[in-house]
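Write out the 3D structure for:
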Amino acid sequence: MQVIRLPDGRLRVPHSVLADTGADEPGRGRIIADAYVEIGPDDPDYDRLLDQSLTEDELAERRRRWRDEDAELLRRFEEWKTDRSED
């Protein structure tokens, strides 16, 4: 999860939550959830987090590049597997 810089200057920051849902009941236990909270310039961590933040457009571009690079890596791996099975 990334720190996202919103157009209004606020930051959307990852925040993990751990909840106990009644572990003594069958099928129940702990839940870990990842969510975002928004902070503004008045937050003590704002300046530190601003340096590592990305806009939503930058994040979308990064994801697109990862997908493209993953596709090339998968293609090369499949070629490698085929070559190995022919030996």
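Helices lie at 46-50, 56-86.
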